[in-house]
C-alpha cells in the first residue's frame, strides 16, 4: 500500500460517450475503511465511475487513483488491489461454484489458490454448495458467487455495482451483512445502489449523482438534514402535557414546532447538535419518550433533490 491518503480518489474525472457526457469533472474521495454509496437515477454516471476505477474504462479528463495508484498509468497495480462485482457478473453457469471462483484465484496468481477459494466460499456461506453448477443456484446465491470471486484475492478496495439488485428482501439483507462484515475487516467499499433504505443503513457517506454531476455528498444524516431541514419527531408514551410543552418552547435551538396528542415535531437549528439536549429537557420535564427520529428518510431526501431543477439548468 502506498503512503496514507484516501483509498479512492477522483480528481475532475470526465468521460464522454460520443456527444453524451457521462461524467462532468467528478471530484470524490473515499476514505480508507469507509463504505460510500453512489446513488442516482439511471444513466447518472454511477457505473461509468466504477468502471473507470476498475481500469475498464479510461477517463477523458482528470485523474483517478486507488490507494494512490493511477488507474491509467498503474492499471496492473490497481487491479491487484481491487475486487469488482459488475452489474451483471458473467459467471460460467455450467461450471461449479468452486470452479468459477478458482478461475479468478488462478488468474490472480495466488500462492494458495485452493485455500483462498475455500475461505472466500466460507465467507459467503457457499461452502456446502461448492460442487453445484452455478446455473442451478438462485439469483441471491449467484450474487454471492460473484462476491466470492471479487474477494478471493482479499483486495483492500471493493467496487460493487448494485450488489443486491433483483434480490428478495432476505437475500438482499444477507448481501448487506456480508458487505458490512468486509468493511469491518478493513475493506474500503464503493457501491452503486438504487436501494436507498439499504444505503441509509449501510453507508458511512453517500454521493448523489445526476446527469454526471455530483449533487450531494455527506453522511445519510447530513444529506437528509440538508434537503429536508433539521426536523425531528419525538413520540411520547403519554400525552404532551404543559411541562413538556414548556421544555420545548424554552429551548433556544427550537425554530418551529408542530404538536400532536402524543408526539412533537420540532425544527432545530442543527438536528445532530441539538437533539440530545432536546431529549434531556423533555426527560427533566417528566416526559416518557418512546422514540426520537429524524423526520423523513434518505429516500424522501433523494426524491426532493430529484424534484429540484439541476443547478445551471434553464428551467431553474
Ligand atoms: N458503453 C457506452 N456507450 C455509450 N453510452 C454509454 C456507455 N456506457 C454508458 N453510457 C451512457 O453514459 C451515461 C451514464 O451511464 P452509466 O451506466 O454510468 O449510468 P448509471 O448511473 O450507472 O445508470 P444505471 O443506474 O441505469 O446503472 C448514460 O447516458 C449512458 O447511456
TrEMBL record:
PROSITE patterns: ABC_TRANSPORTER_2 (PS50893). Residues 8-236 form the ABC transporter domain. Keywords: ATP-binding, Nucleotide-binding, Transport. The keyword ATP-binding applies. This is ABC transporter ATP-binding protein. CDD domains: ABC_DR_subfamily_A (cd03230). The keyword Transport applies. Transmembrane segments: none annotated. GO terms for molecular function: ATP binding. Belongs to the ABC transporter superfamily.
